[in-house]
């Protein structure tokens, strides 16, 4: 069967609408079969809403002095939100329930404290997969192609362990719809890569799926129902589809051309800084960081971002593949 996304499909910013506003750093968005949506909340918890409804913010209520910075989030089979803690010093995976009660879930990997942690997903067998972008302090030291010290880990009944190491700023991961591959974005290596899923669970050798250039720094990724990979790029503020044949297609962008060229030059000079990435210039996508398909037919795409206060949405001509979160319930 040929891939059904038209090669000329392309959106402009005016095609987008607001799903929810008044949010705080909605980096990652989950869409559930019920129509509910959940986004990371930069102040330590999550935001929950239905399309057209008012957002409800759930923040930590345990009085813990540790600063939580939820980055990637997932919904566990127990109905709690899991979040990867991207704190300034320590990371880990935590759960938070609807009353704001926070509990640690994974705090070590290979018997060492978890560094600041980027992303999390719980698979169908209850194993928790997570990514650490870098061991560098501060993290911006790894915003170059020369550093590859990020990793993918998994926690299950056997313990918490690294299953792939030496990655170039490990970011979001996603399971392919056929269950054979784990895909990952290596943001500052400018790559989307994949590993075969093996028993254990463990991973096979790395294969590079796509290499990007300029200021395309791949952050979020998800699959459509036909094997295409939809990738969000911070820096350039683009959504790029990697088609099953390996070709790429820009389906959405809102560029500040001058600023994007500046970022590309800073990256090429190995001198990219937090100040450089703290703005998007005139781009209205506000550092688009994730994408998830939802709605009754999974043709509604929701966009997370790092620097905005809203989740934007558009209608896709093809359906997304269900994620591991899709048929779970928030309790």
TrEMBL record:
Highest taxon, organism lineage: Bacteria
Domain SMP-30/Gluconolactonase/LRE-like region: from-to ranges: 48-247
Gene3D superfamilies: TolB, C-terminal domain (2.120.10.30)
InterPro entries in UniProt: 6-blade_b-propeller_TolB-like, SGL, SMP-30/CGR1_Lactonase
SUPFAM superfamilies referenced in this protein's UniProt entry, alphabetically: Calcium-dependent phosphotriesterase
Name the record gives this protein: SMP-30/Gluconolaconase/LRE-like region
Species annotation: Caballeronia cordobensis (Burkholderia cordobensis)
